[in-house]
Specification:
Layout lengths: L20 H9 L38 H5 L10 H9 L7 E6 L4 H18 L2 E6 L3 H10 L6 E4 L2 H10 L7 H8 L11 E2 L2 E2 L2 E7 L2 E5 H7 L7 H13 L5 E2 L10 H14 L2 H8 L8 H14 L5 E2 L14 H6 L4 E3 L20 E5 L11 E10 L4 H10 L2 H14 L21 H11 L4 E3 L1 H4 L2 H17 L4 H11 L3
Parallel strand pairs: 1-2, 1-3, 8-9, 12-13
Antiparallel strand pairs: 3-12, 4-5, 6-12, 7-10, 7-11
Amino acid sequence: MKQHRTRQTRLRASRFVAALLALALIAAACGSDDDGDDASPAATTAAAPATTMAESPATTMADEPVTTEAMDDTPATTMAESPATTEAMDDGMSMAGTKVSVFGPESTEEEAGAMQDALDVFAERTGIEITYTGARDFSDQINAQAAGGNPPDIGVFPQPGKVGDFGGEGWILPIPDAVKSNIESQWPAGTLDTVTFGGTLWGIPNKTDLKSIVWYNTEIFESGGFAVPESLDELWALTFQMVAAGVTPWCVGIESGPATGWAFTDWMEDLVLRIQDENVYDQWVAGEVDFADERIASIAQTVLDVWNTPGVVYAAGGSIAATPFGDNGDPLVAGDCAMHRQASFFAAFLPEGTGVGPGQEIDVFYFPADAEKGNRPVLTAGTYVSAFRDAPEVWAVMEFLGSAEYAEVRQTAQAERQGGGQSGFLSANTQQDLSVYNDLERSFVQILQTASPARFDGSDLMPAVVGAGTFWTEGTSAVNGDKTVAEAFAAIDASWPE
């Protein structure tokens, strides 16, 4: 059996400091500088950091991910002990004229634009010039940038496993204790464990995605007399009931540029939690249960058997693998399909002005579980921010990105950019004002809070060479029919680092 890196965490409870003390001093000392940046991500480029990673190893992330042993070699001191950081924060040094570049995977006008909107609010208060750049191929680009010694100041990582890899390579910096203490009390217990490796915290949460939901066309359900399923068996029965009635049940697409295949992994992960349980899920994610194990491989075969049944899937791109995951919004509203299983952020891909919620064009139901087990598993995901440069302005932006204020401002901005509908943004920050969300979005938060159990996206936790590598590519090969499940999963197992 393969052994994944172990996680240790040294979290200590503390009361939330409403804002970083130093930032209060800074805000008083700084003027309101206009950075002049266009909020549209398409018009921005990542600014080169003031320092380079010249001391970084020449290898790329295509090499083997770090192991626990590598993480344990991390120096015991943290960036909290860096005089350059602590003295500047304590003295309330003016940050006017400083620059911070942020790079992440969110690239649409709504998502990337709203992130820049939120950063602009912080920039106006502190005088820092903050630029966000988004790219769909972030995962590939950040590897090359870090290995080449020219990373952004802050990276927005959707894969905690990659955060661990980068920490082991020495490419990102440990989170200072002062920042950690201000952030940890704002998030549900265990949230920071996901990016704690070798006893060191390497990232800060700044977004939460709820994945265990199904978006559905209410008119199709009402006119066809279809009931929202309350168990997994009922969901499968509904699927084939719709086919018999001449209705295409599902819109499915897994294309996502270099990340093609992740939507297939989401189906797998949700079903492993439901058909098996969280213990098997945890062992699978840790590499202690092989992909070739019948408990895992049979679930992949179930997904493909359903998708390949004539009449079950509408693929706007001609095939599942050629259909971008976000292109399912229009056909769902148009009635080309009845349902689409996708995370809470899918709201950003619905046509502008689409009514969402009870009695609206599109509504949402919880991806049902096995009725006999009586549990309520929920698959989550999200992003974590990590720092590549040690500077007071970088840590100030890092802390802002994990704060309740960021969540509130970003949510408001993104909802406005969506025309006042569903924003597609969600945060599990426990101190945010939930009034910035609409009723449906607050119900998403309730699903997160009542999960039993909740688990983070498995492919994002696996070593990057697997979770953001072979699981995507080999899974796509199986979906395409280029390989059998057995062949594809054997290749994934072979890629797992020893």
